[in-house]
């Protein structure tokens, strides 16, 4: 595994740990999910998926199979986030973070794709 992949996975892992844990109690996230029209349990579910994704990409530094699954979870989560922004008619500017994270998750998946079903 190359240094670029390790750095990317570390950044994604740390970022998704922060985003995931914020969903468990941050006032901003509570209000955000209300604004999106989602119930509290979905915010908690999303937080768990993000924390699991983070752990997978971090562990994936040593085991590529985990990196591939983490990248896949990140992709699916960010597709959901992008559709949410579209649903509430946000501007593309407001969708940039999920789009960037989707692309980074895709890069992690593609780098480790051969290990996905091994």
Residue stretches low in confidence (pLDDT < 50, at least 5 long) are none
Separate helix tally: 5
Query: Major sheet, described briefly?
Result: none
Oligomer: single chain
- Give the overall pLDDT as a whole number: 94
Terminal CA distance: 16 Å
Total strands: the figure is 0
Write the layout of secondary structure elements.
Blueprint: H1 3-22, H2 27-36, H3 40-59, H4 64-87, H5 96-111
Helix pairs in contact: 1-3, 1-5, 3-4, 4-5
Written overview of the protein:
The chain has helices at residues 3-22, 27-36, 40-59, 64-87, 96-111. With 118 residues, it is mainly α. Helix 3 packs antiparallel against helix 4 (64-87). 76% of the residues lie in helices and 0% in strands.
Quick gist of this model?
With 118 residues, this protein is mainly alpha-helical. The chain contains 5 helices and no strands.
